[in-house]
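hiii so my PI (J.) wants the whole complex modelled not just the main chain, which honestly fair. so below is everything: two entries, each one labled with what it is. i double checked the lines twice but i was tired so who knows lol
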Amino acid sequence: MKQEIRRGKLYGIGVGPGDPELVTIKALRCMKESDILILPSEPREDCHAYRIVRQIYPEIEQKKTISIPFPMIKEKEKLEEAHEKIFHRIRALLAEGNTLAFLTIGDPTVYSTYGYIHRKVTAEGGMAEIISGVPSFCAVAAALGISLGDGGEEIHVIPASYDVAETLNWRGTKIYMKSGKHLAELKWLLSSVDAEVYAVSNCGMENQKIYRDAVSIDADSSYFTVVVVKEKE
Amino acid sequence: MKQEIRRGKLYGIGVGPGDPELVTIKALRCMKESDILILPSEPREDCHAYRIVRQIYPEIEQKKTISIPFPMIKEKEKLEEAHEKIFHRIRALLAEGNTLAFLTIGDPTVYSTYGYIHRKVTAEGGMAEIISGVPSFCAVAAALGISLGDGGEEIHVIPASYDVAETLNWRGTKIYMKSGKHLAELKWLLSSVDAEVYAVSNCGMENQKIYRDAVSIDADSSYFTVVVVKEKE
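here's the output for the full assembly
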């Protein structure tokens, strides 16, 4: 089996934050070279990464697609079990000699499920390559027209679905991602903080919304809301 | 003057971390649409951003270029004075009706001098747009085959030319950028830390070097060395 996995190749491709023009030339090439697309959602029309790419590379519709939904769970054991199942599926496809393009939104090294699969494939001697993409927080800063960090400022990327109370006083810039159902709580916490608060929902998509203070953030807006907190100048 | 500045348009373009294929489709389009390239180095052959782009877009050699070297200083007053001078030069070019492409390595919102110019141009009502790029730390993680953050892990981006001692115990992943002459000190500090230490010099370029522990890092390697510190699993 260890040798068989080397028959194929796996690309973990970041397709960027939402604007189809922010796909890189390399991502486009690797998708074209791939036999099969691996998507984390089913049907593929519901997959954000697929919808982003289709706008700039319509020929993707002719590609064979395999949807392997990743479960959105936090329990470590169940998560590992799910990853193991997904890995076995991908290993079988690699052993058949396929070149696979695993699509992720943003960048594959920033809170992407691709990381688990990459580690498992390379641990067995398989060929896997990460194709970097523009992370959502860079596009969010671009839409806001602000810097994430200047000079000696630190930049903290914080998953907001975990405990965030103690992060509020950190110096530098704080980027809260994946807030989901916790966005209302984060909004409430930030409304009493003496800082510049920004947020962007669905960045680069048709329904993009920009907020320039904590109070106006629509707490029901979207899973794809990124909040940026900067120290006052 | 406030109306004149609106005759032109300024693009702040991130050309990514070094691999010419990591340039986005949007960056390429905006460069093609621009009348003049603004580069932070002189001569243009010494400019990293220019050298990255030329490999994927050779026609850039026919573009008119204006080199405006940014001073690498920390004193706030001198820095503001230098930025003011650069802004006046760019304002004059915009008032002539030019579309300008200001090139930066990585992403324009992550420790880029472009941010200052963007704020000054928009404050006077000028048209300026940030075109996001892949930040160097994403490409560094890709080259290493590691995740920067999974699940609830925080990611801290830290300018290493400032005091870093207190950052060593932060939980999550730490990314030390712009270490420059301080790389030797950082290496020494990290050699006694119980963590996974990685570094990549000149990521995506011909002379790329990968390090998988603190001791082996070449402290004289380069300004373009990014150090990543992850908690042990």
